[in-house]
Amino acid sequence: MEGVLIAIGVVAVFALVIVVIVWFLKRSYAKYAELWGRLAPLVGGTSKGSKMTGTFEGRPLRARVNSVGGGENSETTYYFEVVLESPPRGADWRITYGGEKLFGFGEKRWHISTKDEGLKQRLEQAGVLVEVAHWGNYPQLEYKAKRGTLEYKAQVSGMFSIPDRPEFEAQLGLLSRLARINEQVNGA
Predict the structure, then answer these.
(1) pLDDT > 70: what percent of the chain?
(2) Is 81 helix (H, G, I), strand (E, B) or coil?
């Protein structure tokens, strides 16, 4: 009899855990639907959970809140990411903010990283560092040539940290300008 009671207790706890998980997922999906609902019209987008897809100026895009970490002894870090598709061409490049020496020491400023020194010079001459100079949240911007994607990634405060409409419009505008510059200066 005691074994049966233990089994019933285990099943009840398991069922309770499932109910709590389902409740949390429904609440989070409803919250994301509300937040994405403000931005979706800008890109003709649809959303599911922490992700939204759509198009901007004829280019497919994906946006999401992504989490990193959260293991036993670490905190979860959240990022807001927007990926704008752009024709695959040339070489990879990245724009980041930080120190220029090993481990990020030295003067903090915007940097262009690429294996193609000529591309780096063309990106600088085209004004990409001027484009990002006023971004106080210091996003990372990266073009992946083989995938044909231009990515915006910025650390945010939590799992529901989706930008407001003006901020999202600014992010889309920045990605669009960088995509056009990339098409002009990054060899086919």
Answers:
(1) 85
(2) strand
